[in-house]
Design goal:
With 396 residues, this protein is mainly alpha-helical. The chain is built from 6 helices and no strands. This is Myosin tail domain-containing protein.
Length: 396
């Protein structure tokens, strides 16, 4: 009895030592998950701060883009005004053509009236020369003269009326010519301005092409830098003319950078959401593992209880000389219990492997977030370098 009691005490101490080891393992796992969650929160806070700094640094770029949009709206308004002036000029040209037709008609009618007056005067003179022929002829001539004078008076009134109309048409024609001159000057100035704007558009397009070439060169340098391991970043030297053109084209290029940064921000948000989902899954698996650990501790306690019972039974068998078959049955039950414990250990190892996979995915997500942050920082440095180049050009 004393030996069996000693063995039982040793087994109890062994089980208590195992329980302490498992509790230490649980505390280590808990601390590790707390460190992972803290690192995750710190990286999320750093990425949010980086995004806020990038968005804040793009305010000046947005102002440049707004100015460019205002200038384009001004150009469109000026083009619409030029088109309206051209339409007004065409209408005035049609009115001038109609006035010229009216003047030509009035001149033809005036010429006809003058010709008729000349013929009437010739008839009057011939009639006056024939006064001495006879009295009848004189009376007839007087009547003809009276009729002719009345006709001349009527034609004179008509000529005066036509002359007034011609004078009015001449005044309108002169006013139209003055208006045409003013519109011609405004049209010439508008054409000159349109040519200037077209030249600016061509220059802007050329600057866009040069900026694209420069972007390809910078991308090649970035790829070479990545291939070299990131030991340095040296931009190629460019001419002063290219720098000036680069600064003039900065609006379109910064817009492209802003779009790229916005896309990166969206990707970063998606990555953060995926990391949060992974954290939720990880916490779920941690809870499952804790439940399995509790089940394992309960199973170990039951095993210890069974072992104690077995030991008591063995002692009873030794004392009571029980049959060996009963002892074999008890051993089989013990082996079955051990197999169940082994299966639970296998399940626990499977869940541990799942946790390791989730940790690897979390580390991969963190690496991708760090890569995105590094890319955003590179873009910020490029934008700052562009604004520094603009300041250098302005100083020059």
């Amino acid at each position: 009895m004393s030996a069996s009691t000693t063995y039982g005490e040793r087994d109890d101490e062994t089980l208590r030592g195992r329980d302490r080891n498992h509790l230490q393992d649980d505390s280590i796992c808990t601390d590790e998950f707390e460190i992972i969650s803290c690192d995750t929160l710190a990286s999320l806070a750093d990425s949010d701060g980086t995004l806020e700094n990038v968005i804040r640094s793009q305010s000046e770029t947005r102002e440049i883009l707004e100015k460019a949009i205002i200038s384009l709206d001004t150009i469109n308004r000026e083009r619409s005004e030029i088109a309206s002036k051209f339409e007004t000029l065409n209408n005035l040209e049609e009115e001038i053509k109609s006035l010229k037709g009216r003047v030509a008609d009035l001149e033809r009618e005036n010429a006809d009236l003058r010709k008729a007056n000349a013929e009437k005067e010739a008839v009057v003179e011939s009639s006056l020369n024939q006064e001495g022929s006879s009295v009848k002829d004189d009376e007839l001539l007087k009547k003809q003269i009276a009729n002719l004078e009345q006709q001349l008076y009527d034609r004179g009134l008509e000529v005066d009326k036509r002359a007034k109309a011609l004078t009015k048409a001449t005044v309108e024609l002169e006013a139209a010519y003055r208006k045409i001159g003013d519109l011609t000057e405004s049209c010439n100035s508008a054409e000159a301005k349109c040519k200037e704007l077209s030249a600016k558009v061509d220059e802007t397009f050329a600057l866009l092409l040069s900026e694209r070439e420069h972007s390809s060169v910078v991308e090649d340098e970035i790829r070479s830098l990545r291939a070299d391991g990131g030991n340095g970043f040296n931009f190629s030297r460019v001419s002063e003319q290219m720098l000036v053109r680069e600064m003039q084209e900065k609006a379109s290029y910064t817009k492209k950078l802003e779009v790229e940064i916005e896309n990166l921000r969206k990707q970063l948000e998606d990555q953060i959401k995926r990391c949060n989902r992974k954290d939720d899954e990880l916490s779920t698996h941690v809870e499952i593992i804790n439940v399995l650990k509790e089940e394992d501790s309960e199973g170990r306690r039951q095993i210890a209880e069974k072992n104690r019972k077995i030991q008591d039974l063995e002692e009873m068998v030794q004392q009571m000389f029980l049959d060996r078959a009963d002892i074999e049955n008890l051993r089989k039950q013990l082996e079955d219990q051990i197999k169940r414990c082994n299966r639970k250990d296998d399940e626990l190892s499977t869940h541990v492997e799942i946790i390791n996979v989730l940790k690897e995915e979390d580390s991969e997500g963190r690496r991708q977030i760090a890569e995105k942050n590094r890319k955003i920082q590179d873009l910020e440095e490029m934008v700052q370098q562009m604004f520094l180049d603009r300041a250098d050009v302005n100083n020059c």
